[in-house]
């Protein structure tokens, strides 16, 4: 696919996200085509085109993109403009016009805010005041997560955005939506009626969504200590996954039809009972052979920090389809393994013909495991009879692997950037979605919970298992 020619302005182009994710994604998107995609990096640091190109070459090298073509691309298509921390963006507006003239661009512009979240409001105000919300072509605004710290700040940020930009110009990123396996959730559900027919309270006993990370906070302690697992992961990535699992069939596959259904899911979720929340914080421990220091000893983390690095929550949906089916969300840093999984546990047979008992003779429920990363794929665990006359049953997985079927799959940021340029908002979070998610979580992010300690390299605090209820012995996703 050839990208529409445009100027891609990254505000915050000296940061971690740009160097590790955005730049390699842009480079990969334009690598095999002649399209005129010009990148203007913007930040407050004192760089120029030359020094920005030099650091970008190193970033691309670190990401595995090297060679004379890449160096030439940096020289031909990368620019840098220094902007003031608080002051106006009129010099930026002039520079944009100059670069567009130089490259023969017709005024299509993306503004990507890869900024500390506290800077989003001022940057949007300054773009608007400088007349940069409109252009001779199209103008699109991409905003990174987290979008607000709770409902009130999310609403304020939305009102700043809408003061200058129309919602049709706005792309709120949740990079999980760009993952191939996450997009496939919709295809899996809505093009395979065999599953959709069972996707309801009559057939499903419970749903679990686990995003376990095996790394600690690394160098991001300053940001993370103010965010914690609820703001960093639950309110956005895990909740987005939940909406895709629980939504009704959209009338079409168009952006707003899908987003309308996702919002309805959020509206159907009952207020969270604090007893249904377990938070944790990792202490020292081992992941494999590597010794991981305690969260409180990480750089830029307060020595007495109570920030949760783990969260598990039970949610109940008051909807026709899901009444009585609990949904469990669980995420943590410094856990035993990196895995993102959704497990849909189906109800057992109502009577047990095979063993002649009336109930409970089949200990294992059928479970559908959707593995979003790594080892992308799914497996459906079903019961089969062991050969012979023992009468024993065995659980067998029916397995599908992305890598076996398709080889490599694209990076989430590549997919999302291409969608921004194509003007497709399906994989981006609408203003009402983000506010509904905050409506749900604001009471608990504002309640002080003492996190349970857990050792790095474990599956989180033991107390999380109790959330599943007395009849469930363990998580179907990554058992403890
Ligand atoms: P960094 O702190 O590494 O980078 C922030 C960037 O913003 C720098 O280029 C900084 O440069 C610039 N900046 C800071 N203040 C201003 C200002 N007032 N005006 C203009 N530029 C400014 O952050 P990250 O790159 O890690 O994160 C950026 C965004 O992406 C955040 O919202 C984060 O939550 C989100 N994100 C990041 C991920 C990651 O893996 N890093 C993953 C998912 C989301 P300078 O100080 O020179 O101006
Ligand atoms: C980011 C969070 O949004 O997602 C990080 O800020 C987290 O804390 C990351 O590590 C996880 O993303 P992925 O794609 O590696 O699962």
Structure characterization notes:
With 480 residues, the chain is of the alpha/beta class. The chain folds into two domains: 6-144, 3-Layer(aba) Sandwich (Rossmann fold); 177-410 and 429-466, Dihydrodipicolinate Reductase, domain 2 (2-Layer Sandwich), CATH 3.30.360.10. The protein has 14 helices and 17 strands. The chain has helices at residues 16-30, 49-62, 68-77, 90-103, 120-129, 151-164, 180-190, 193-196, 221-246, 255-268, 402-406, 412-422, 431-445, 463-466; strands spanning 6-11, 37-43, 78-82, 109-113, 139-143, 170-172, 204-212, 277-283, 285-287, 290-292, 310-315, 327-332, 339-346, 367-373, 377-385, 393-401, 452-455. The strands form three sheets. The chain has a nine-stranded mixed beta sheet with strand order 16-15-14-13-7-12-11-8-17. α1 (16-30) packs across α12, α2 packs antiparallel against α3 and α6 packs antiparallel against α13 (431-445). The chain is globular, with a radius of gyration of 24 Å. NADPH dihydro-nicotinamide-adenine-dinucleotide phosphate binds at residues 11-17, 43-45, 83, 85, 114-117, 119, 144-145.
Strand fraction = 15-25%
CATH-defined architecture of the largest domain: 2-Layer Sandwich
In total, the number of domains comes to: 2
**Residues in helix, %:** 25-40%
Looking across the biggest beta sheet, what order are the strands in?
16-15-14-13-7-12-11-8-17
The chain-level structural class is alpha/beta
Bound ligands, named by name, code or SMILES? NADPH dihydro-nicotinamide-adenine-dinucleotide phosphate, 6-O-phosphono-beta-D-glucopyranose
According to CATH, what is the class of the largest domain?
Alpha Beta
Q: Which descriptor suits the 3D outline?
A: globular
By DSSP (H or I, 4+ residues per run), the number of helices equals: 14
Measured between the Cα atoms of the first and last residue, the distance is 44 Å
CATH H-level superfamily title of the largest domain: Dihydrodipicolinate Reductase, domain 2
Poorly predicted runs are none
Classify the fold: give the CATH topology of the largest domain: Dihydrodipicolinate Reductase, domain 2
Global mean pLDDT? 94
> Sheet with the most strands?
9 strands, mixed
What Rg do the Cα atoms give? 24 Å
Beta strands, count: 17
Oligomeric nature of the chains: single chain
């Amino acid at each position: 696919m050839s990208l529409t020619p445009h100027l891609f302005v990254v505000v915050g182009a000296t940061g971690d996200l740009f160097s590790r994710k955005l730049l390699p994604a842009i480079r990969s998107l334009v690598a095999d085509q002649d399209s005129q995609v010009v990148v203007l990096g913007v930040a407050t640091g004192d760089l120029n085109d030359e020094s920005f190109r030099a650091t970008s070459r190193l970033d691309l090298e670190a990401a595995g993109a090297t060679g004379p073509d890449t160096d030439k691309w940096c020289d031909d298509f990368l620019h840098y403009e220094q902007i003031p921390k608080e002051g106006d963006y009129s010099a930026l507006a002039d520079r944009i016009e100059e670069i567009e003239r130089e490259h023969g661009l017709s005024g299509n512009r993306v503004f990507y805010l890869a900024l500390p979240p506290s800077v989003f409001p001022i940057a949007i105000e300054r773009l608007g005041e400088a007349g940069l919300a409109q252009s001779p072509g199209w103008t699109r605004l991409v905003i990174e997560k987290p979008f607000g710290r709770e409902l009130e700040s999310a609403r304020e940020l939305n009102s700043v955005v809408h003061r200058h930009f129309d919602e049709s110009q706005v792309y709120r990123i949740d990079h999980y939506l760009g993952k191939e396996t996450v997009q496939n959730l919709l295809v899996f559900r809505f093009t395979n009626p065999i599953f959709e027919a069972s996707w309801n309270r009559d057939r499903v006993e419970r749903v679990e969504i686990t995003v376990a990370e095996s790394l600690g906070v690394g160098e991001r302690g300053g940001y993370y200590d103010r965010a914690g697992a609820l703001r960093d992961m639950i309110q956005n990535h895990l909740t987005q996954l939940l909406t895709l699992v629980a939504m009704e069939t959209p009338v079409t596959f168009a952006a707003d039809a899908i987003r309308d259904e996702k919002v309805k899911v959020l509206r159907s979720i009952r207020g969270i009972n604090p007893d249904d929340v377990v938070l944790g914080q990792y202490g020292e421990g081992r992941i494999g052979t590597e010794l991981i220091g305690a969260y409180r000893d990480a750089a830029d983390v307060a020595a007495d920090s109570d920030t949760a690095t783990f969260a598990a929550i039970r949610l109940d949906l008051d909807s026709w389809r899901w009444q009585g089916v609990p949904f469990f969300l669980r995420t943590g840093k410094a856990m035993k393994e990196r895995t993102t999984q959704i497990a849909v546990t189906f109800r057992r047979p109502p009577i047990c013909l095979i063993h002649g008992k009336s109930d409970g003779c089949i200990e294992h429920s059928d479970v559908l495991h959707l593995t979003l990363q790594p080892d992308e794929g799914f497996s459906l665990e079903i019961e089969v009879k062991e050969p012979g006359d023992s009468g024993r049953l065995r659980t067998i997985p029916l397995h599908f692997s992305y890598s076996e079927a398709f080889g490599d799959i694209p990076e989430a940021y590549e997919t999302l950037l291409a969608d921004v340029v194509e003007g497709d908002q399906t994989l981006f979070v609408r203003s009402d979605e983000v506010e509904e998610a905050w409506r749900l979580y604001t009471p608990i992010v504002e309640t002080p919970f003492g996190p349970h300690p857990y050792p790095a390299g474990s599956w989180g605090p033991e107390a999380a298992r109790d959330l599943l209820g007395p009849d469930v012995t363990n998580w179907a996703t990554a058992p403890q």
